[in-house]
Amino acid sequence: xxxxxxxxxxxxxxxxxxxxxxxxxxxxxxxxxxxxxxxxxxxxxxxxxxxxxxxxxxxxxxxxxxxxxxxxxxxxxxxxxxxxxxxxxxxxxxxxxxxxxxxxxxxxxxxxxxxxxxxxxxxxxxxxxxxxxxxxxxxxxxxxxxxxxxxxxxxxxxxxxxxxxxxxxxxxxxxxxxxxxxxxxxxxxxxxxxxxxxxxxxxxxxxxxxxxxxxxxxxxxxxxxxxxxxxxxxxxxxxxxxxxxxxxxxxxxxxxxxxxxxxxxxxxxxxxxxxxxxxxxxxxxxxxxxxxxxxxxxxxxxxxxxxxxxxxxxxxxxxxxxxxxxxxxxxxxxxxxxxxxxxxxxxxxxxxxxxxxxxxxxxxxxxxxxxxxxxxxxxxxxxxxxxxxxxxxxxxxxxxxxxx
Length: 404
Description:
- This protein is α+β, with helices and mostly antiparallel strands.
- The chain is built from eleven helices and ten strands.
- β9 (302-304) and β10 form a beta hairpin.
Protein backbone atom coordinates (compact mmCIF):
# COMPACT_ATOMS: atom_id res chain seq x y z
CA UNK A 1 0.00 0.00 0.00
CA UNK A 2 1.13 3.51 -0.72
CA UNK A 3 2.06 5.66 2.24
CA UNK A 4 0.79 9.14 2.83
CA UNK A 5 4.23 10.55 2.08
CA UNK A 6 4.43 8.99 -1.37
CA UNK A 7 2.57 10.32 -4.40
CA UNK A 8 -0.76 8.55 -4.32
CA UNK A 9 -2.07 7.11 -7.56
CA UNK A 10 -5.70 6.15 -7.25
CA UNK A 11 -7.89 4.37 -9.73
CA UNK A 12 -10.33 6.47 -11.77
CA UNK A 13 -13.13 4.45 -10.16
CA UNK A 14 -12.32 6.06 -6.81
CA UNK A 15 -13.35 9.62 -5.98
CA UNK A 16 -10.69 12.34 -6.25
CA UNK A 17 -9.52 14.49 -3.38
CA UNK A 18 -12.02 17.29 -2.88
CA UNK A 19 -15.07 15.06 -3.21
CA UNK A 20 -17.91 15.75 -0.77
CA UNK A 21 -19.67 12.78 0.79
CA UNK A 22 -22.33 12.09 3.42
CA UNK A 23 -24.62 14.88 2.31
CA UNK A 24 -21.71 17.30 1.99
CA UNK A 25 -20.73 16.96 5.65
CA UNK A 26 -17.33 15.42 4.85
CA UNK A 27 -14.70 16.45 2.33
CA UNK A 28 -11.98 14.02 1.24
CA UNK A 29 -8.80 16.08 1.59
CA UNK A 30 -5.88 13.64 1.54
CA UNK A 31 -5.09 10.09 0.45
CA UNK A 32 -3.61 8.09 3.30
CA UNK A 33 -3.25 4.74 1.59
CA UNK A 34 -4.06 2.85 -1.59
CA UNK A 35 -4.57 -0.90 -1.67
CA UNK A 36 -6.29 -3.69 -3.49
CA UNK A 37 -9.43 -3.22 -1.38
CA UNK A 38 -9.77 0.50 -2.15
CA UNK A 39 -8.48 3.81 -0.80
CA UNK A 40 -8.18 5.32 2.67
CA UNK A 41 -8.63 9.09 2.86
CA UNK A 42 -8.43 11.72 5.53
CA UNK A 43 -11.67 13.65 5.52
CA UNK A 44 -12.60 16.84 7.34
CA UNK A 45 -15.96 17.73 8.81
CA UNK A 46 -17.13 20.70 6.76
CA UNK A 47 -19.38 21.78 9.63
CA UNK A 48 -16.57 22.08 12.18
CA UNK A 49 -14.69 25.37 12.64
CA UNK A 50 -11.93 25.64 10.03
CA UNK A 51 -12.37 21.94 9.26
CA UNK A 52 -10.44 20.94 12.38
CA UNK A 53 -12.26 17.63 12.91
CA UNK A 54 -10.74 14.83 10.84
CA UNK A 55 -11.87 11.29 10.10
CA UNK A 56 -10.34 8.33 8.34
CA UNK A 57 -12.55 7.19 5.49
CA UNK A 58 -12.06 3.82 3.84
CA UNK A 59 -13.60 3.81 0.38
CA UNK A 60 -14.32 0.31 -0.86
CA UNK A 61 -14.15 -0.45 -4.54
CA UNK A 62 -17.30 0.01 -6.56
CA UNK A 63 -19.72 -2.82 -5.85
CA UNK A 64 -20.11 -3.61 -9.52
CA UNK A 65 -16.40 -4.42 -9.73
CA UNK A 66 -16.38 -6.78 -6.74
CA UNK A 67 -16.81 -10.51 -6.77
CA UNK A 68 -19.51 -11.95 -4.55
CA UNK A 69 -16.80 -13.20 -2.18
CA UNK A 70 -15.14 -9.76 -1.96
CA UNK A 71 -18.48 -8.16 -1.22
CA UNK A 72 -19.17 -10.73 1.49
CA UNK A 73 -15.75 -10.07 3.06
CA UNK A 74 -16.45 -6.33 3.17
CA UNK A 75 -19.88 -6.88 4.71
CA UNK A 76 -18.33 -9.11 7.37
CA UNK A 77 -15.55 -6.58 8.08
CA UNK A 78 -18.06 -3.77 8.58
CA UNK A 79 -20.38 -5.84 10.75
CA UNK A 80 -17.64 -7.16 13.05
CA UNK A 81 -15.91 -3.78 13.35
CA UNK A 82 -19.20 -2.06 14.21
CA UNK A 83 -19.92 -4.69 16.84
CA UNK A 84 -16.49 -4.29 18.48
CA UNK A 85 -16.06 -0.54 18.19
CA UNK A 86 -17.92 0.25 21.40
CA UNK A 87 -14.69 -0.55 23.24
CA UNK A 88 -12.16 2.31 23.68
CA UNK A 89 -9.39 -0.02 22.54
CA UNK A 90 -11.01 -0.50 19.13
CA UNK A 91 -10.98 2.28 16.54
CA UNK A 92 -14.50 3.72 16.47
CA UNK A 93 -16.49 3.03 13.33
CA UNK A 94 -18.87 5.97 13.26
CA UNK A 95 -21.04 5.15 10.29
CA UNK A 96 -21.16 3.60 6.84
CA UNK A 97 -22.24 5.70 3.87
CA UNK A 98 -23.43 4.28 0.56
CA UNK A 99 -23.04 6.92 -2.12
CA UNK A 100 -23.12 6.23 -5.81
CA UNK A 101 -21.15 3.05 -6.47
CA UNK A 102 -19.01 3.39 -3.36
CA UNK A 103 -19.15 2.32 0.26
CA UNK A 104 -17.47 4.71 2.71
CA UNK A 105 -16.48 3.47 6.17
CA UNK A 106 -16.04 6.49 8.45
CA UNK A 107 -13.70 5.92 11.40
CA UNK A 108 -11.53 7.78 13.89
CA UNK A 109 -8.48 9.43 12.38
CA UNK A 110 -5.17 8.71 14.12
CA UNK A 111 -2.89 11.77 13.92
CA UNK A 112 -0.14 9.88 15.75
CA UNK A 113 -0.02 7.18 13.07
CA UNK A 114 0.25 3.52 14.02
CA UNK A 115 2.24 1.39 16.42
CA UNK A 116 4.73 0.45 13.71
CA UNK A 117 5.64 4.12 13.20
CA UNK A 118 5.79 4.80 16.93
CA UNK A 119 8.12 1.84 17.51
CA UNK A 120 10.44 2.21 14.54
CA UNK A 121 10.52 5.91 13.80
CA UNK A 122 9.54 7.60 17.07
CA UNK A 123 11.11 5.06 19.48
CA UNK A 124 8.19 5.94 21.72
CA UNK A 125 8.33 2.93 24.03
CA UNK A 126 11.96 1.87 24.01
CA UNK A 127 13.28 1.43 27.54
CA UNK A 128 10.12 2.72 29.23
CA UNK A 129 8.71 -0.14 31.33
CA UNK A 130 5.68 1.79 32.55
CA UNK A 131 4.54 2.91 29.10
CA UNK A 132 5.13 -0.52 27.55
CA UNK A 133 3.06 -2.13 30.28
CA UNK A 134 0.21 0.36 29.96
CA UNK A 135 0.03 0.13 26.16
CA UNK A 136 0.18 -3.66 26.14
CA UNK A 137 -2.53 -3.91 28.79
CA UNK A 138 -4.70 -1.71 26.57
CA UNK A 139 -4.19 -4.16 23.73
CA UNK A 140 -4.99 -7.14 25.94
CA UNK A 141 -8.22 -5.48 27.09
CA UNK A 142 -9.28 -4.66 23.53
CA UNK A 143 -8.59 -8.15 22.21
CA UNK A 144 -10.27 -9.78 25.22
CA UNK A 145 -13.35 -7.65 24.54
CA UNK A 146 -13.42 -8.76 20.92
CA UNK A 147 -13.04 -12.38 21.99
CA UNK A 148 -15.90 -11.99 24.49
CA UNK A 149 -18.08 -11.09 21.49
CA UNK A 150 -16.85 -14.12 19.58
CA UNK A 151 -14.73 -11.98 17.23
CA UNK A 152 -11.20 -13.13 16.43
CA UNK A 153 -9.02 -10.61 14.58
CA UNK A 154 -6.45 -12.88 12.86
CA UNK A 155 -4.25 -9.99 11.70
CA UNK A 156 -2.95 -8.34 14.86
CA UNK A 157 0.30 -6.49 14.14
CA UNK A 158 1.72 -2.99 14.78
CA UNK A 159 0.38 -1.65 11.47
CA UNK A 160 -3.16 -2.51 12.56
CA UNK A 161 -2.89 -0.70 15.89
CA UNK A 162 -3.49 3.04 15.66
CA UNK A 163 -2.04 5.55 18.11
CA UNK A 164 -3.48 8.58 19.84
CA UNK A 165 -2.27 10.98 22.54
CA UNK A 166 1.36 10.81 21.42
CA UNK A 167 1.30 7.03 21.34
CA UNK A 168 0.02 6.61 24.90
CA UNK A 169 -3.42 5.42 23.80
CA UNK A 170 -3.84 2.67 21.22
CA UNK A 171 -6.74 1.06 19.38
CA UNK A 172 -6.93 -1.87 17.01
CA UNK A 173 -8.36 -1.57 13.52
CA UNK A 174 -8.77 -3.45 10.23
CA UNK A 175 -11.18 -6.34 10.75
CA UNK A 176 -10.86 -7.48 7.15
CA UNK A 177 -9.62 -10.94 8.16
CA UNK A 178 -11.63 -11.27 11.37
CA UNK A 179 -13.80 -14.33 11.91
CA UNK A 180 -16.37 -15.66 14.33
CA UNK A 181 -15.31 -19.27 13.79
CA UNK A 182 -13.96 -20.89 16.95
CA UNK A 183 -12.00 -23.33 14.79
CA UNK A 184 -10.78 -22.50 11.30
CA UNK A 185 -9.29 -24.34 8.36
CA UNK A 186 -8.44 -21.10 6.53
CA UNK A 187 -4.69 -21.40 6.75
CA UNK A 188 -2.05 -18.73 6.05
CA UNK A 189 -4.49 -15.99 6.98
CA UNK A 190 -2.76 -12.88 8.26
CA UNK A 191 0.73 -11.40 8.08
CA UNK A 192 3.81 -13.54 8.12
CA UNK A 193 5.79 -12.07 11.04
CA UNK A 194 2.86 -12.29 13.44
CA UNK A 195 1.21 -15.50 12.22
CA UNK A 196 1.15 -18.49 14.56
CA UNK A 197 2.74 -21.76 13.41
CA UNK A 198 -0.57 -23.62 13.42
CA UNK A 199 -2.18 -20.96 11.21
CA UNK A 200 0.42 -21.84 8.59
CA UNK A 201 -0.75 -25.46 8.51
CA UNK A 202 1.44 -28.50 8.02
CA UNK A 203 2.93 -30.28 10.99
CA UNK A 204 1.74 -27.63 13.46
CA UNK A 205 -1.92 -28.23 12.54
CA UNK A 206 -2.23 -32.03 12.57
CA UNK A 207 -6.00 -31.91 13.10
CA UNK A 208 -6.56 -29.78 10.00
CA UNK A 209 -7.77 -26.75 11.89
CA UNK A 210 -6.60 -24.14 14.41
CA UNK A 211 -8.05 -21.75 16.97
CA UNK A 212 -8.28 -18.13 15.73
CA UNK A 213 -8.52 -17.05 19.39
CA UNK A 214 -5.17 -18.58 20.30
CA UNK A 215 -3.72 -17.38 17.01
CA UNK A 216 -4.45 -13.84 18.26
CA UNK A 217 -2.60 -14.60 21.51
CA UNK A 218 0.48 -15.70 19.56
CA UNK A 219 0.35 -12.45 17.56
CA UNK A 220 0.17 -10.45 20.78
CA UNK A 221 3.32 -12.22 22.00
CA UNK A 222 5.22 -11.03 18.93
CA UNK A 223 3.79 -7.52 19.39
CA UNK A 224 5.05 -7.53 22.99
CA UNK A 225 8.56 -8.21 21.70
CA UNK A 226 8.10 -5.48 19.08
CA UNK A 227 7.11 -2.99 21.78
CA UNK A 228 9.96 -3.80 24.13
CA UNK A 229 12.82 -4.41 21.70
CA UNK A 230 11.82 -2.94 18.34
CA UNK A 231 12.63 -6.31 16.77
CA UNK A 232 11.02 -9.43 15.31
CA UNK A 233 12.26 -12.70 16.84
CA UNK A 234 12.13 -14.55 13.48
CA UNK A 235 10.85 -14.09 9.96
CA UNK A 236 8.22 -16.82 10.10
CA UNK A 237 7.16 -19.45 12.61
CA UNK A 238 7.86 -22.31 10.22
CA UNK A 239 10.20 -25.33 10.40
CA UNK A 240 12.43 -23.98 7.62
CA UNK A 241 13.23 -20.76 9.50
CA UNK A 242 16.54 -21.37 11.36
CA UNK A 243 15.77 -18.81 14.05
CA UNK A 244 12.39 -20.35 14.81
CA UNK A 245 14.04 -23.78 14.68
CA UNK A 246 16.45 -22.65 17.40
CA UNK A 247 13.50 -21.47 19.50
CA UNK A 248 11.75 -24.82 19.11
CA UNK A 249 14.80 -26.67 20.41
CA UNK A 250 15.09 -24.51 23.52
CA UNK A 251 11.98 -22.36 24.10
CA UNK A 252 12.98 -21.24 27.58
CA UNK A 253 16.59 -20.43 26.78
CA UNK A 254 16.67 -19.10 23.25
CA UNK A 255 14.98 -15.69 23.35
CA UNK A 256 16.97 -14.29 26.32
CA UNK A 257 20.16 -15.45 24.60
CA UNK A 258 19.51 -13.15 21.63
CA UNK A 259 17.24 -10.42 23.04
CA UNK A 260 17.67 -8.32 26.21
CA UNK A 261 14.45 -9.42 27.90
CA UNK A 262 13.99 -10.08 31.60
CA UNK A 263 13.40 -13.60 32.97
CA UNK A 264 9.82 -12.74 33.91
CA UNK A 265 9.00 -11.46 30.42
CA UNK A 266 10.69 -14.48 28.90
CA UNK A 267 8.40 -16.75 30.94
CA UNK A 268 5.35 -14.81 29.73
CA UNK A 269 6.51 -15.04 26.12
CA UNK A 270 7.22 -18.76 26.32
CA UNK A 271 3.63 -19.31 27.45
CA UNK A 272 2.21 -16.99 24.77
CA UNK A 273 4.41 -18.56 22.10
CA UNK A 274 3.67 -22.15 23.05
CA UNK A 275 3.74 -24.10 19.79
CA UNK A 276 0.81 -26.29 20.84
CA UNK A 277 -1.99 -23.73 20.87
CA UNK A 278 -4.01 -25.89 23.27
CA UNK A 279 -1.30 -25.26 25.89
CA UNK A 280 -0.97 -21.52 25.19
CA UNK A 281 -1.75 -18.94 27.89
CA UNK A 282 -5.18 -17.37 28.02
CA UNK A 283 -5.52 -13.59 27.84
CA UNK A 284 -6.50 -13.47 31.51
CA UNK A 285 -3.31 -15.32 32.45
CA UNK A 286 -1.21 -13.01 30.29
CA UNK A 287 -2.84 -9.93 31.79
CA UNK A 288 -2.15 -11.03 35.35
CA UNK A 289 1.48 -11.82 34.54
CA UNK A 290 2.04 -8.48 32.78
CA UNK A 291 0.51 -6.59 35.71
CA UNK A 292 2.93 -8.34 38.07
CA UNK A 293 6.01 -7.81 35.87
CA UNK A 294 8.58 -5.35 37.22
CA UNK A 295 10.73 -4.84 34.12
CA UNK A 296 10.77 -5.94 30.50
CA UNK A 297 14.56 -5.81 30.19
CA UNK A 298 17.53 -7.84 31.31
CA UNK A 299 20.41 -6.22 33.17
CA UNK A 300 22.75 -4.37 30.84
CA UNK A 301 20.24 -3.90 28.02
CA UNK A 302 21.56 -1.38 25.51
CA UNK A 303 19.24 1.01 23.66
CA UNK A 304 20.58 2.03 20.27
CA UNK A 305 18.49 3.58 17.52
CA UNK A 306 15.06 1.99 17.58
CA UNK A 307 16.21 -1.28 19.13
CA UNK A 308 17.02 -2.83 22.47
CA UNK A 309 20.20 -4.91 22.25
CA UNK A 310 22.10 -7.38 24.35
CA UNK A 311 25.41 -5.92 25.60
CA UNK A 312 27.38 -8.10 23.18
CA UNK A 313 25.45 -6.57 20.24
CA UNK A 314 26.32 -2.96 21.09
CA UNK A 315 27.53 -1.13 18.01
CA UNK A 316 26.74 -4.01 15.67
CA UNK A 317 24.98 -3.16 12.42
CA UNK A 318 22.25 -5.75 12.66
CA UNK A 319 20.56 -4.59 9.48
CA UNK A 320 23.53 -5.49 7.31
CA UNK A 321 24.97 -8.27 9.49
CA UNK A 322 28.13 -6.22 9.98
CA UNK A 323 30.01 -6.50 13.24
CA UNK A 324 31.42 -3.02 12.90
CA UNK A 325 34.90 -4.26 12.05
CA UNK A 326 36.76 -3.93 8.80
CA UNK A 327 34.87 -5.88 6.11
CA UNK A 328 38.15 -7.33 4.93
CA UNK A 329 38.57 -8.99 8.33
CA UNK A 330 35.30 -10.86 8.20
CA UNK A 331 34.46 -11.40 4.57
CA UNK A 332 31.26 -10.21 2.91
CA UNK A 333 28.59 -10.96 5.49
CA UNK A 334 25.77 -8.83 4.14
CA UNK A 335 23.48 -9.51 1.19
CA UNK A 336 22.81 -6.85 -1.46
CA UNK A 337 21.31 -3.69 0.10
CA UNK A 338 17.65 -3.96 0.92
CA UNK A 339 15.07 -1.34 0.09
CA UNK A 340 14.34 1.13 2.86
CA UNK A 341 11.58 0.34 5.32
CA UNK A 342 8.40 1.95 4.01
CA UNK A 343 6.45 4.45 6.04
CA UNK A 344 3.56 2.88 7.89
CA UNK A 345 0.28 2.92 6.00
CA UNK A 346 -2.43 4.52 8.10
CA UNK A 347 -5.61 2.67 8.92
CA UNK A 348 -4.71 -0.49 7.04
CA UNK A 349 -2.29 -3.36 7.41
CA UNK A 350 -2.69 -4.57 3.83
CA UNK A 351 0.80 -4.00 2.52
CA UNK A 352 0.67 -5.69 -0.83
CA UNK A 353 3.61 -7.53 -2.33
CA UNK A 354 6.64 -6.11 -0.58
CA UNK A 355 9.94 -7.76 0.13
CA UNK A 356 10.77 -7.30 3.83
CA UNK A 357 14.25 -7.24 5.25
CA UNK A 358 15.13 -10.90 5.65
CA UNK A 359 16.33 -12.48 8.84
CA UNK A 360 20.05 -12.86 8.19
CA UNK A 361 22.02 -15.96 9.12
CA UNK A 362 25.68 -16.53 9.76
CA UNK A 363 27.08 -18.99 7.19
CA UNK A 364 28.90 -21.96 8.74
CA UNK A 365 32.09 -21.13 6.84
CA UNK A 366 32.33 -17.80 8.70
CA UNK A 367 32.46 -19.42 12.14
CA UNK A 368 36.23 -19.69 11.90
CA UNK A 369 36.75 -15.93 12.21
CA UNK A 370 37.77 -15.39 15.83
CA UNK A 371 36.95 -11.66 15.97
CA UNK A 372 33.42 -12.25 14.73
CA UNK A 373 32.95 -15.20 17.08
CA UNK A 374 33.80 -12.95 20.02
CA UNK A 375 31.07 -10.49 19.01
CA UNK A 376 28.51 -13.18 18.19
CA UNK A 377 29.67 -15.54 20.90
CA UNK A 378 26.36 -16.04 22.77
CA UNK A 379 24.28 -16.82 19.73
CA UNK A 380 26.94 -19.06 18.16
CA UNK A 381 27.44 -20.99 21.40
CA UNK A 382 23.69 -21.46 21.62
CA UNK A 383 23.57 -22.75 18.06
CA UNK A 384 26.46 -25.15 18.64
CA UNK A 385 24.84 -26.55 21.78
CA UNK A 386 21.61 -27.10 19.86
CA UNK A 387 23.41 -28.76 16.98
CA UNK A 388 22.29 -26.20 14.40
CA UNK A 389 24.32 -26.29 11.21
CA UNK A 390 23.05 -22.84 10.21
CA UNK A 391 22.82 -20.69 13.34
CA UNK A 392 20.38 -17.78 13.42
CA UNK A 393 21.62 -14.22 13.26
CA UNK A 394 20.42 -11.76 15.94
CA UNK A 395 16.77 -10.76 15.43
CA UNK A 396 16.41 -7.83 13.04
CA UNK A 397 14.42 -4.59 13.42
CA UNK A 398 10.70 -4.78 12.84
CA UNK A 399 9.64 -4.34 9.23
CA UNK A 400 6.30 -4.13 7.50
CA UNK A 401 4.48 -7.43 7.52
CA UNK A 402 3.47 -8.96 4.21
CA UNK A 403 0.06 -10.46 3.70
CA UNK A 404 -0.07 -14.16 2.92
